[in-house]
Amino acid sequence: MSQPNNTTTNSLLDAVCRRGVLVSTSVRYWRGCKKLSPEDLGLDPANVSDRLIQLGHKRLIPRDALQAFALIESRVQATVEGSSFPFLGGIGRFVPNPRLGQLTERLDQLRDEFREATLDFVAGYVPLRESAMIEWRDAAQHLNGSAERLIATIEQSFPPAAEIAKRFAFETRLFQIAAPDHIRLEVAEGVAEMEAAEDRRRIADEATRRMQQDLDSFLRESVSSLREETARLVSEVLATIDSSENGVHQRTLNRLTTFIDNFRSLNFAGDQQLEQTLERFRRDLLQRSAEDYRNDPGAMTTLTDGLNRLRESAVQLARADARDIVARFGQMGGRRLAAVG
Predict the structure, then answer these.
(1) What are the start-end ranges of the E strands in 88-176?
(2) Angle at 166 between CA 160 and CA 171, to 5 degrees
(3) Residue 88 CA to its chain's centroid (Å)
(4) Tens digit of pLDDT for each residue in 138-182?
(5) Which fold has domain 219-332?
(6) pTM (predicted TM-score)
(7) Where are the domains of the chain?
């Protein structure tokens, strides 16, 4: 069996690795919940109908006691998603190099907020737990089951004060992915060397094929997502202008300018056609102020016509095949490999 040519896969991977890194974030905190069972209430499971009684996860402490952590977690997710693309089925998020500094700076700020919130929570944990147990004891008196058993279960569900800090962690990891030079397999005794070598070649061939497909799909999806986001933003801007009694506002024009800047920093795959279209739009239509547009009906018509053309162009590009972009992207990695070789 002939060995496949790995040049295309290696060149794509090399280009991806040079254009950005993978980021993985984890925000972990004690959720303050306990999954109650019928036995926790002193009830016979055989006599409990799911249609009438819903147990499941119940809050040990008030929701607002952990609200700061939930907010930080959502901000971390939004920050990472706004600066990256999902990579190979979600093993990480790919961050283009131009966005890396801004992303890590914002994550550092959120990590500081998380640390402060953790210190505050740990400092107030004991009185919070005592206050919550008072509420639970009061609530348990109104249950038909065993109040003593329920209270014992709830008390045991609170982590010890000395260990509560271990339930909180904010982690960010940056890494790159690389294809293995070859695949090593343990060969069972009694298997012929020729058969083992054939198995290794077959597995390596399949891994190379899947890597090529995954990288190709990743690049196409990244390009498509930026094109779709462009069309979506322009549609929102047009709707805002159409619904405004005073015409266009400066914050709307600023939103377009910011988007174009963000597009350039996220356009790691090299979508030259859309980037050039956006830059022309900036040059031709974003040099005037909103007040100028409001005072000049002809200019306002020019702006809305330009927005409609931009949206139409982005929609058409989103529906188009990005194979030419993938090919050019691979050539960049290929030139690097040729120079190294």
Answers:
(1) 92-96, 169-175
(2) 160
(3) 13
(4) 877 766 556 777 788 888 889 999 999 999 999 999 988 766 555
(5) Four Helix Bundle (Hemerythrin (Met), subunit A) (1.20.120)
(6) 0.77
(7) 7-175, 219-332
